[in-house]
Amino acid sequence: MSSSIQFSSNNYRSRRALTIQFIFLIISISFVLFHKSLREYTDQQQQVGFYKSDNNNNLLITFVNAQNETRATTSYNPFSSISEKIASFKLNLYRLTFTGKQAPDKFDPESSDYWQGIGTSALGGGIVSILAILALLFFDTVRGLGCFGGIEPTKQLFYGREQRKQPYGQCQTFSLKIILAVMLVLIGGLCTLLIIGNVIFNVSFENGRVYFKATLVDMFNTTVNLQTVANRIQVASGSTSDITDINTLISQQQTALNSTNTLVREIRHLNFLRYFLLMVIAVVMLSVPLLGLLGGLTHWKEFALYGVRFGYMMLVCAWILFTIHFAFAMVTQDMCATADRYLQGTEGNTTSSSELVSQVSSLVSIFSQCSNSSQLVKNSGVSMSLVDGMLTSLNQQLTNADSQKRDFHLVLYNVTNATSIDFVAANPDTKANVQKSVDSILLFAYDLIPSFLTYNNCSSVGEKFVQFVDSGCVGMLSSIHILWAVFLVIGSALIPLTWFNCLGYKRFRKKRFVIPKERQPEGVEIALHLT
């Protein structure tokens, strides 16, 4: 007795030690994965390399010390880190049209060959779904004709309603229960993965929608502010030229903002319906093996019968949803890859008869120009020669004939101290004019110049656009691949599962082990009693 107690105690201690080791192992793995993710995120941020200035003085000196129109241009490109992510999710499939020629893989909604290539690539799922519908009709037909054994179970498929003397054995029934239990675990795991992928896709879509709208609004507001600052600079310089590029950019952005708001709103409603329907379908798919197993546990054949019905229905849904999500994944990857080529400057702008495509192309061209030159507006109407002339004029007014004159771009004092610098010989007769000039030029230097550079720097819109691409392309592509892969596996697993439920309809009977008695004629029974 004591030895058995000691053995139980040792067994408990060993299990507890294993449990503690397992917990520490999980914590260690989680820490390593978190550290790796944090390091990758840090490297990604360093790779993006948004341009930041320490203060306005450095920004001013950088701007003033430049010698030509390209002096404010940097090597900033916030979109370089997106290419590798998009390429990692790309499905390199050989696409064919209905006539057998190769279909293009570049996003072109106006091309029939492009959509034919998408259709032929996802054609397999549509064919299987049609076969599943025919199989459902076939099952109902043969069942109505009594081809599954009638009242008593039978080991033969097409036997009619005649009773058999050899019912299924206990081993055959129990093994089918084990198979259905394993299928329940498999389908349950796949449905869980389906729900997770659906949630990730929905979250990625919502984040992409929010970042997309925020990017457009931020870019529009930035361009409006840029227009305001440019107007002030032109007024201060006495220039009357029209800032055509900024006005054109504002018009493009306003049109794109109005058209995309309506489109995004409609897509959001469709995505909500897709999200809700997938949740319902995931639950119904889980009920297919569950009904079959309930039929085996309760020996009620109707459970297995409903499992067969739902199995055929979900088989059709699984392959249809696989076809839709696989085609959508290909279209999404083509859109993201095409946009990425625009942003990297390897794809020229294309014209299209579609208004939507034209608007998208207009937006992409803005970001393409932004990524290639690091400037939102290249020809803003503010020239460096104008700034240099204004600074030269100011230096002449401040110094006059002073031999210790210094360039204005190093005179970074406040307006109230600008006329009390020791080495600046300000003539009392012209002090008022000097003060007025210093006031306007310093306002220009401390406000307009840094504001202009800030608004015209692509980092102001590039950061939000990178967030949009990360959520819209990277996040949605990763989750959409999970969804179509899960539907592919579920669609394949439902084929044998539905057949197992058909077997359960035959084997799971309350009297599965009772051999029916043969009826004897009444006269024979009386004769037997008499003998």
TrEMBL record:
Membrane topology value: Multi-pass membrane protein
Gene Ontology, cellular component aspect: chloride channel complex; plasma membrane
A Gene Ontology molecular function term of the record: intracellularly calcium-gated chloride channel activity
Transmembrane regions listed in the UniProt entry: 17-34, 114-139, 174-201, 275-298, 310-331, 482-503
Subcellular location: Cell membrane
Keywords noted in UniProt: Cell membrane, Chloride, Chloride channel, Glycoprotein, Ion channel, Ion transport, Membrane, Transmembrane, Transmembrane helix, Transport
Recorded coiled-coil stretches: none
InterPro entries, per the entry: Tweety
Predominant subcellular localization, coarse grouping: membrane
Family designation: Belongs to the tweety family.
Protein name: Uncharacterized protein
Species whose genome carries this gene: Naegleria gruberi (Amoeba)
